[in-house]
Amino acid sequence: MSAADATPSRTDKHELILEAAIRVFAQKGFHAARISDVADEAGVADGTIYLYFKNKDDLLLSIFEEKMDLLLAGLREALVGVTDPLEQVRTFARYHFRQVQDHRELAEVLQIELRLSNKFMKEYRPQKLWEYLGKFAEIVRAGQEAGQVRTDIDPFMAMWAFFGAMDEMSMQFILAKHRKFSLDAAADTVSGIFIRGLSKEKP
Amino acid sequence: MSAADATPSRTDKHELILEAAIRVFAQKGFHAARISDVADEAGVADGTIYLYFKNKDDLLLSIFEEKMDLLLAGLREALVGVTDPLEQVRTFARYHFRQVQDHRELAEVLQIELRLSNKFMKEYRPQKLWEYLGKFAEIVRAGQEAGQVRTDIDPFMAMWAFFGAMDEMSMQFILAKHRKFSLDAAADTVSGIFIRGLSKEKP
Amino acid sequence: MSAADATPSRTDKHELILEAAIRVFAQKGFHAARISDVADEAGVADGTIYLYFKNKDDLLLSIFEEKMDLLLAGLREALVGVTDPLEQVRTFARYHFRQVQDHRELAEVLQIELRLSNKFMKEYRPQKLWEYLGKFAEIVRAGQEAGQVRTDIDPFMAMWAFFGAMDEMSMQFILAKHRKFSLDAAADTVSGIFIRGLSKEKP
Amino acid sequence: MSAADATPSRTDKHELILEAAIRVFAQKGFHAARISDVADEAGVADGTIYLYFKNKDDLLLSIFEEKMDLLLAGLREALVGVTDPLEQVRTFARYHFRQVQDHRELAEVLQIELRLSNKFMKEYRPQKLWEYLGKFAEIVRAGQEAGQVRTDIDPFMAMWAFFGAMDEMSMQFILAKHRKFSLDAAADTVSGIFIRGLSKEKP
DNA sequence: AATGAATGAGCTTTCATTCAT
DNA sequence: AATGAATGAAAGCTCATTCAT
């Protein structure tokens, strides 16, 4: 009500429910999770969820959409000041695995549960994911133009390979809850392979 | 029907149902597919499926188990006579993508639908997958011992990265039903990156 | 706004909501209509409706109660000056069908939607309807006493028959949105049949 | 299994469920009745109902369709041997009210509950009802051709008036569970009014 | 008086699985 | 071994109603 209007009292149910859903989906899985589980976790009534999200699927997709925005913004920020394309590859990998580590439940939902939804995999076009990964294709193309990256590799092919490698290692990290698995080492391995694998051979 | 055939007269309903399930799961997705759909496709009664498989999940896992056996056997055969570790990487990649291309419905089930099953991802230990991928770790280790492969890379880390790269590209191939996407090119890209990425730098 | 107006400044939300409800119920049907639809149509908040009506059923019954008052008053006025009982039958029919024609949405609600409510049909005693129809029974009785109407017919039985005939024809008119259906012809048919049907045979 | 195959063991679930539904719908009303109520009444599981009927609406419509067939067949039989059109009117009325009396629960469903369904009233074309009532229009037309029935009345208008009169009286009979209301008297009243109302005035 | 965000009870329908034949 | 009719648990979603502001 003040001029500044920080709206501290507004609980932002949207955010509240979204975060609760991430925790619940990560723990029980999307299909096993009931709407009432999410409602309980968020401390609201079942029906309240439908005031903020169209349905259960929409809740899952909203997690993806909204979190990918943050992920993409963070990636752009992480790449600021890194000019060398091959160094950018390393930065990308480190940033990605750092996010997986820092937001493990979210990662679990995005990596595993999102793939549950046939809607997502087969009907939905993950535009946000393409924007995120597109940065890698740009890096490769820039490296090719700068003469550092071999030109016999298609940037988009390399992009999917890079994403696949990171994704699978993240998956193993998530699944290997009790085994040792260093994401820093994963970042170094992936960037190590791709940096050398993509660079022009020394003459 | 030959004398060598151990079970000549048995129609092998087990196999019949399994193949029907692959087609149905690939087409409709595991969750959307009904047991009665599989039964119809196989030309048997619903109840008959339960004489050969414990439940719907077991049907999915059986597809994985039995097909991975064939895949692994094929891989071993493909690698026969290829002695150079780096060349073995190329052979592996080509073999893998060839299988995806030749058994597209099976690939679709294994790549997408199998991941749907929380049971599979979180509880089940895909021993057969590890055996298959383990070949790659062996190749890397052998290369390291032979002095061709850099030793700062953990063979198992490399294994997951390699699998992830191939898997994601296969996924894109499967999803990109109408776009052009060459699996041969994918094999060359992946092996191109990994062969150079794993090899020792030339002095 | 006039001096005679007892409630000049009051916007009369009650009336506002009632009229909105008639339009909404007629258009979407009572069950399909949401309280929020009525609120939107009336330009008030959902909760406001509950300041004027006990619940959704009460809203429907209030439409009946209040509109039947007007209908009954109009009928009495229409019958003023008509002394011949058989002529009164014709007047009744013409008045009734005229109302259906002039207040089609209201008629739709009263004819179709009101019957939807189990509450209305099985628990509620439609006193107002009986008053309205009672006029017909009175007409018949008066005709019997005057010697114009046959006495082997129970006035109340005749009343229900007369009402049923008019009601069904109104229903057909309402349902037959696109077909030709003249309510004037309906009035003539009904009164034609009942006037002759009720009158004493000519000796 | 015998040659005669009376199939006494076949419980005919379809019929069983239909009859149970009539009882339940009549007692609780269509909307208030739960599928599980019908299942309980029929002594089957909830799911079984869906093996025989598409959904709850279909169950209601099936009652109408199947029972109207019987009603129509019975009407035709009742009219056999009655040649005089005006006498046929009386036969029709008596048959109709007899059915209401003998199948009171069915009548209750058809008269009251069927009208609950917006689907039925607004979308569904009650072909079977038209066939039933069409007999009356035929009777009127035949009477006009034979010179017994006045020609200033449209047979279809008369048909709706006749049906409305009978329907309303049936409704009152059904609603007036505890009051005295003779359906025989109703039949005589309706046919009395319509026979004289439709016949040509004596010269 | 007015609001409208929040509530939570309630129910149809699906479909994996069973078991009498 | 094979059938397929029958089962019944399970849950997403709606919407009339409430009440704190």
Fold and architecture overview:
The structure is a homotetramer of 203-residue chains. By secondary structure, chain A is mainly alpha-helical. The first copy, chain A, folds into two domains: 1-53, Homeodomain-like (Arc Repressor Mutant, subunit A, Orthogonal Bundle); 63-198, Tetracycline Repressor, domain 2, CATH 1.10.357.10. Chain A contains ten helices and no strands. The N and C termini of chain A lie far apart (69 Å). Mean pLDDT of chain A is 88; it is low at 1-10. The A-B interface holds A 29, 31-32, 112, 115-116, 118, 121-122, 152-154, 157-158, 160-169, 171-172, 175, 185-186, 189-190, 192-198, 201-202 and B 29, 31-32, 112, 115-116, 118, 121-122, 152-154, 157-158, 160-169, 171-172, 175, 185-186, 189-190, 192-199, 201-202. The structure holds a DNA duplex (21 and 21 nucleotides).
In the CATH hierarchy, the architecture of the largest domain in chain A is: Orthogonal Bundle
Residue stretches of chain A low in confidence (pLDDT < 50, at least 5 long) are: 1-10
Beta-strand segment tally of chain A = 0
Query: In sequence order, what are the helices and strands of chain A, one letter per element?
Result: HHHHHHHHHH
State Rg of chain A.
20 Å
What is the CATH H-level superfamily of the largest domain in chain A? Tetracycline Repressor, domain 2
- Oligomeric state, counting identical vs distinct chains: homotetramer
CATH class of the largest domain in chain A equals Mainly Alpha
- Tell me about the largest β-sheet of chain A: none
Query: Which structural category fits the helices and strands of chain A?
Result: mainly alpha
Mean pLDDT of chain A: 88
